[in-house]
Design goal:
48% helix; four-stranded mixed sheet
């Protein structure tokens, strides 16, 4: 179990990342290749990524260089997910190159002791070896993550919208209580029940940066070194594929049509008209027509926020999704 111990000052310094952290997403996406858990949630990405790695000749590099450094285990080096990565891939990779040799040596030694990493990992204190690693990370990101960036940004924007509504409705306590099913807020401690190690991190006024992640699945992740700036990578909520009826079509599709079903699903995480349109694959004008129908049917509510219209499920809409095999974000 991992426990974050908050002081009153830490609660005022709780933050949510405003953009994807590319290096954390690289780490989490590499974990998706190492397990079948949650494979359904990433099926289109998984197929496309495997094909891209083969077509670009990166498959061997991933297998021999990246996967040993990012094992889906109780530990991988902190220097691979630096705080500077919040400013973008380039800044994060520069931070990896600039990581102190002492830190790299210490963390690589720990990696070898815990998961038995290959002997070559000791060479990461060498500048040339680290440059090779950075080139591999950049190529991997370009091949398998960049093509999905629009979808990733869309999901993260929906998550920030959800958290904003939660903050307005139930405050910081509500935000901390709805991060993930395995996370519990027991004031003044945030507990991660399914965690591979036993650890207590005392924030002591440093606050906590929450990083919603597209590729993180089920179990949140934090840095191993409690002295580093505290972060918590937590998974976005994914919905399984809809159940199929006897005729091969989802029941909701037969009832509402494909477009309205897509818009209703988008509203499960909170969506603007534009986001709902992207989710359903239609124009915003068309989406606006369908949101009106869904609203008149009592399945969604709509509220204007600045220059946008935010759509969310009603209890009836949530019940309809749940009865047809969809899972609303809680």
């Amino acid at each position: 179990m991992l426990r974050f111990h908050f002081t009153p000052e830490d609660l005022t310094r709780l933050r949510i990342a405003t953009a994807p952290h590319p290096l954390w997403e690289i780490a989490a996406s590499l974990h998706r290749f190492q397990t079948h858990e949650g494979r359904w949630a990433y099926a289109p990405w998984y197929r496309t990524a495997r094909s891209a790695l083969c077509n670009t000749g990166l498959a061997r590099t991933v297998r021999t260089l990246l996967l040993p450094l990012f094992p889906r285990a109780s530990y991988f080096p902190d220097f691979l997910t630096p705080a500077d990565g919040a400013a973008g891939l380039g800044a994060g990779l520069e931070s990896i190159l600039a990581a102190p040799d002492r830190q790299v040596a210490r963390e690589v030694t720990k990696l070898r002791e815990i998961v038995g990493a290959p002997a070559w990992t000791r060479n990461l204190t060498d500048g040339a070896m680290r440059e090779q690693l950075v080139r591999a990370l950049r190529a991997y990101h370009h091949a398998v993550i960049t093509p999905f960036e629009e979808r990733i940004h869309e999901r993260l924007h929906a998550e920030r919208t959800r958290q904003t509504r939660t903050l307005c409705g139930t405050g910081i306590e509500g935000v901390l209580n709805t991060l993930a099913p395995t996370i519990r807020w027991r004031p003044p401690v945030l507990e991660l029940g399914k965690y591979p190690t036993e650890c207590d991190i005392h924030l002591n006024g440093r606050g906590l940066l929450l990083i919603p992640s597209y590729f993180c699945w089920n179990t949140p992740v934090s840095l191993a070194d409690p002295d580093l700036p505290p972060v918590l990578l937590y998974p976005l909520h994914h919905s399984p594929a809809a159940p199929q009826g006897a005729d091969g079509h989802a029941p909701l599709h037969a009832l509402l049509g494909i477009t309205r079903t897509g818009i209703l699903r988008a509203a499960a995480t909170g969506a603007t008209t534009t986001e709902a349109a992207q989710h359903a694959g239609v124009t915003p004008t068309t989406a606006s027509h369908h949101t009106t129908v869904l609203r008149d049917a009592g399945l969604i509510t709509s509220h204007r926020h600045a220059n946008t219209m935010l759509h969310a499920l009603t209890p009836l809409g949530a019940s309809l999704l749940q009865q047809n095999g969809w899972h609303r974000v809680h």
